Amino acid sequence: MEKTSFFKLSMIGSTIYLFLSFLLIILYRSCLPDIGFSQELFWANLDSTSLGSLFISHFFEALWLFGLLTLFLHFNNIYLVNIHNVLLLLLLILAYSGITFCIWRSIDTYIDELSSSSLRVLCDSAFIFLHYIFYSLLLYYLVELSKKYFFKNRQAFCLTSENSSLIHVILFLAFICPILYSGFRIIENLIMVFGQGSVNRDLKFTFILFILFCMRVSKKNFMISFDEIQYARLFKSVFVSSVLLLLIVLTCLLLRGKSSSFYFDYTSLILDYIKLFFLVVFSLLLTYLIFNKVTKYYFLKFDNKK
Q: Which residue ranges run through the membrane (predicted)?
């Protein structure tokens, strides 16, 4: 049975990619140079504390893939959810996952061989920034090569007053969340090299609040319906919001700095968390103002920009 859906194929593809990429890295880290695959290392990696951060990183990459795949399939009127299209999409994601894994493995090996820890951090930051560009181009050309084999709709997907707002909200969040996460990782790396050592865990939690808060406040500013995807407004709003929010993150990290408290110094500990509380409130208020102004400017006041 064939069904037409705007997001279903891209959701299937991003889910497959998340599973494959996560599994490939676990298997790669479980292989010893001399004896090959080690079952003990495999289960040790599954139980490691880095598993959560690894999954989160690949989740945001899958989210980016979801947004791009949605747009690329939309360009080619590919919406039919049937066995043929799903199997072809599976092959496309297999090729994409294999190539991106080889790129990641090469860069990871190169970074590990660097003698300077500062240089390793800088190279890792450069890869975080550039890999979305390379991966996006790779996905584009894979879709271009395989688009003639997909079963396509005869007409483009029609945006209505019921689905236009939801589609733009989902695409906006699919692009801005990976950018914010990657930007925070770059800022964190730069602070480790040029600043005050590692970033405190509570600030990472603050950034997660940033993303959750962004997802909550952005929806109300997409109420105007459009008859086609607003690509220019979408990417401009994502870019402007990301830059301003990352500047807030950087400012809060610099203001937070190192924690000077010890477990027995209750006064310093209390003052430290009071400072953190006000930084959280300050950052969330600015986040609300930025998202409200930027999304309202690009999506609500569209009549003035026609």
A: 12-30, 50-74, 86-107, 119-143, 164-183, 238-257, 269-291
Instruction: Look at residue 227 and tell me whether its pLDDT is greater than 50.
Output: yes
Query: For residues 9 and 81, is the Cβ–Cβ distance under 8 A?
Result: yes
CA distance 298 to 300: 6
Report the C-alpha gap between 28 and 5 in whole angstroms: 35
- pLDDT of 32 higher than 60: no
43 or 73: which leads in pLDDT: 73
Q: In whole angstroms, what is the distance from residue 127 CA to residue 182 CA?
A: 10
Q: Element (H or E) spanning 37, and its range?
A: strand 36-37
Q: How far is CA 198 from the centre of its chain?
A: 22
Quickly count: other Cβ atoms within 10 Å of residue 306's Cβ. Answer: 4
Three-state SS at 79? coil
pLDDT confidence of residue 262: 39
Q: Please report, in angstroms and rounded to a whole number, the separation of the first and last CA atoms in the chain.
A: 42
Question: How far apart (Å, rounded) are the C-alpha atoms in residues 86 and 129?
Answer: 31
Type and span of the H or E element at 213: helix 201-217
Percent of residues, the chain, with pLDDT higher than 70:
74
d(CA 141, CA 152): 18
Supply 290's token pair. 């930025």
Task: Using the CB atoms, write b or e for 285-295: b if 16+ within 10 Å.
Answer: ebbeebbeebb
pLDDT band at 12 (very low <50, low <70, confident <90, very high): very high
Distance CA 279, CA 206 (A): 9
Q: Is 77 left (phi over 0), alpha (psi -120 to 50) or beta?
A: left
Hey, which bits of 53-187 come out as E strands? 80-81
Contacts of 235 (CB under 8 A, 6+ apart): 175
Question: What is the Cα–Cα distance from 146 to 142, expressed in whole angstroms?
Answer: 6
Structure confidence at residue 205 (pLDDT): 62
